[in-house]
Design brief:
There is one protein chain. Helices cover 68% and strands 0% of the residues. It is an all-alpha fold.
Length: 130
């Protein structure tokens, strides 16, 4: 693979500015230019794998700083710490899911109240103002 930054970004379904942002954050390497006097930077298969990993890790709820740590752990084959990191993330996701389920139940209740109330303030608005 010998990709320009545009093709590289397209491979992971991100924009060029996202690639540059990850480079500034130290998550992606900035390849050398083909010609130091103004050549094009080229990206390979390893770069594509790294970019896809970053995107998937973000979808799993990891912050960019946590992703950077995971990359470092992988480079050192530190599976024990990577496992601990993932386990902590799972606990955090479980807590978020629990909170979201409570919020959904509350909103469902308020929406049902609003549906049946024909006068006075809307129960949804009233609940959020309280």
């Amino acid at each position: 693979m010998n990709l320009t930054i545009k093709r590289f970004a397209d491979e992971a379904d991100v924009g060029v500015e996202t690639v540059r942002f990850y480079q500034r954050k130290g998550l992606l390497e900035v390849p050398e230019k083909e010609n130091p006097a103004g050549g094009i930077r080229r990206y390979g298969e390893g770069d594509v794998r790294r970019l896809r990993f970053i995107r998937k890790a973000q979808r799993a709820g990891f912050t960019l700083e946590e992703i950077k740590t995971l990359i470092e752990l992988d480079a050192n084959y530190d599976h024990e710490r990577a496992h601990a990191f993932a386990t902590a993330r799972l606990r955090a996701l479980d807590a978020q899911i629990s909170e979201l389920e409570k919020a959904r139940a509350s909103l469902r209740y308020l929406a049902e109240q609003c549906k049946h109330q024909t006068s006075g303030p809307c129960p949804i608005i009233a609940a959020f103002e309280a």
